[in-house]
Amino acid sequence: MAERITVATDGTLQVPDEPILPYIEGDGTGVDIWPASQTVFDAAVAKHGRRIVWKEVLAGEKAFNETGDWLPEETVEAFREHIIGIKGPLTTPVGGGIRSLNVALRQILDLYVCLRPVRWFTGVPSPVRHPEKVDMVIFRENTEDVYAGLEVQAGTEEASRLAAFLRDDLGWTIKPNSGIGIKPVSESGSKRLIRAALEYALRHGRRSVTLVHKGNIQKFTEGAFRAWGYELVRDEFSDVAVGWDDCGGNPGDKLLVKDAIADITLQQVLTRPEDFDVIATTNLNGDYLSDALAAQVGGIGIAPGGNINYVTGHGVFEATHGTAPKYAGQDKVNPGSVILSGVLMFEHLGWTDVAADIVKALEATIAEHIVTYDFARLTEGATEVKTSEFAAAIVERL
Ligand code: NAP
What we know:
By secondary structure, the chain is of the alpha/beta class.
């Protein structure tokens, strides 16, 4: 019987065998990658005697064309009520009232973690020599930092009033032709993100959590993020985790928590990826780092993401690439990002058997060099297949 997922008082998800899951097909290539992904999900779930009752909700162009609204309230309500959902890519309306539909959904549902696991699958073309050494999970803060949208345009009345306040009250001199942005990073926001990363690392038997920050320059935002992280380890996790300075880099059997400055991190994830495991970082650093890392293991066609609030249980899993409009409707692009976002979703639901099966079948397909155009152009002797054929090949190997 179709039922809703609920959340118990202790915050754990109660997942029925036939949950109702809302989904957004997505704009552009969403019409290709969503149906392909859905066939993989349905086949994998059926194998374990379960069923998903899909509930389509609208957002983006499809919503705008049908309702005049880019993000109808009904859609937000569906994600709120059903706790967990999944989406394809959405067009960001240019010059519209909403800066980004993705950012709007994250902020409305307070999905404070952007979860981006980055690992390599055998056979995936990569620009680095040892992509198999990349196995990291990024926890990117999703609600604060420069993404809070607090900025004023150069030359406006607001900008000159803000500049006057900063000059008169704080003695800061700002050039008159400047746009000004505000970067809020809170103790509670930082700690809940880092707490989620630590709990994930402990749950999954990971070796370390690295706090990535730019605290050498931005002391009271990025530097504070680092300090609050170590404080959290001492206050709440001292029996199971230890900060680098408190153990001289020798954590014994505890989880090691260390930190690294963002710029050197971007270099070291390339030169010694094996030193990084779980990463907890502020919003903008996380944005750069996620895409840079995705490039090492095959690019955005195959990089999954999840936006999660571990307290309320809400989660929206999503393709990390955009709508790639030039390929829309051609049954051409790689559905890997949505498929692996589904894997993340199933892991989050506790359906680890389903998740593992999909990963195995996807790996087997790619290992046989049956791939979409993006991998085919980088792989000698590959068999290039359409989006739907790639999904069918995965289903065959389930
Ligand atoms: P994009 O849609 O991500 O496409 C950029 C390039 O990435 C494509 O030209 C293609 O590369 C490659 N690519 C994208 N999806 C792929 C897939 N499934 N398989 C294989 N390769 C794929 O970025 P964009 O053109 O900058 O943005 C287009 C629209 O998407 C904009 O409206 C933007 O706001 C929106 N967007 C949405 C999201 C989201 O919903 N999460 C994220 C980012 C952007 P090649 O040209 O090399 O083949």
